[in-house]
Amino acid sequence: MATVPRLILASASPRRQALLAQIGLVPDAIIPADIDETPEQGELPHHLAMRLAAEKAAHIAQSDPDAFVLAADTVVGAGRRILPKTEDRDEAAACLGLLSGRRHRVTTGVALVAADGRVIARRTTTIVQFKRLSAEEQAAYLGSGEWQGKAGGYAIQGMADAFVQQIIGSYSNVVGLPLHETAKLLAGHGFPVWQTP
User: Which of 39, 61, 79, 128 would suit a FRET pair with 197, their CA atoms being 20 to 30 Å apart?
Assistant: First the structure.
């Protein structure tokens, strides 16, 4: 019986761990990559997502060159503007105000360092249309605290799903990891995603 290679998830996100578990993948190790996530001057949202995912994967792969290392970064963009991972209520309120009644894009860069050292990166973008939010809806959401640390100031898998009028593309991408694309990336580069128990 072939030995299953080690899989390291270079992310502290419990959402990404839960999403991988949905398709039967449990990483052998979870090692967050401590890198500077500051956007470069003039950097576009999809460029930032791809760059950070690749940097995270490469950073963690140095410690275990024989493992598969998977990393991801999700960025919410309104036009050319990168929305922050909100840390305070004022930031979250500004994001909700900006997203109210309009479309925005959620891009996740997914990077894999394969066991042979190759670095492969892909990106997935989903378009999300928010309804126009009333002052009461915004206040209730801000009071929930769900926005803390979330790209764009909301979590689609929580109360904010009620704000979504339309979604075009991958739902799991908006949560933080596009499952179809991630499974395809792993399987296409030698990781046994669809193992028979």
Answer: 61
